[in-house]
Specification:
Layout lengths: L9 E3 L1 H31 L7 H25 L1 E3 L3 E9 L2 E11 L10 E3 L3 H7 L6 E4 L2 E8 L6 H9 L2
Parallel strand pairs: 1-2, 4-5
Antiparallel strand pairs: 3-4, 3-7, 6-7
Helix pairs in contact: 1-2
């Protein structure tokens, strides 16, 4: 049986891609140099058998190199996607809890606190099934799409949505 050559595609926005490239450059340059200096200093202390500074510097070096490999892979397999934005109304027990600007992004960019939602998430899949004005439930929470993929979502749009309860 022939083995398929499938490459994992790592979806991310242009902003996310730029962030990954920036982090990779920082890790390959500044962070590597700083760790190298830590290792030199730790070696100057002598007694390698019980040198906690050297152990810590070597561990930092190992973690940094792992991160470099991860970032290189993510960048090499990147597929740039256009982020989708929505204004969502969150309700609990029928009462409006808050309004959010949600952005659907690649999996490695998701950040719950900033309302950046992975396109692979259950929440994103539910959003994809509904249009402006429609609602959907996840557990005890109800969400209503106030705006879907408008040309521009600003805090002003969000404030208008809040005032139109």
């Amino acid at each position: 049986m022939a083995e398929e050559n499938t490459q994992v595609v790592n979806e991310m926005t242009q902003e996310g891609y730029n962030e990954k490239v920036k982090e990779l450059n920082e890790r390959m340059n500044e962070k590597r140099n700083a760790i190298s200096e830590q290792i030199k200093y730790a070696k100057s202390l002598g007694d390698f058998s019980e040198n906690a500074e050297l152990d810590a510097a070597k561990e930092a070096e190992n973690e940094n190199e792992k991160a470099i490999l991860r970032l290189q892979h993510e960048i090499a397999t990147a597929k740039i996607i256009k982020p989708q934005k929505f204004i969502i109304c969150e309700k609990e027990n029928g009462q409006v809890v808050d309004y959010y600007i949600c952005e659907l992004v690649g999996e490695t960019e998701s950040d719950f606190i900033q309302h950046k939602i992975s396109r692979q998430s259950l929440f994103a899949q539910e959003i994809g099934k509904h249009k402006k004005g429609e609602s959907f439930k996840i557990n005890e929470f109800e969400f209503v799409i106030i705006e879907d993929s408008p040309r521009q979502i600003t805090e002003e749009n969000l404030e208008k949505a809040r005032n139109n309860k």
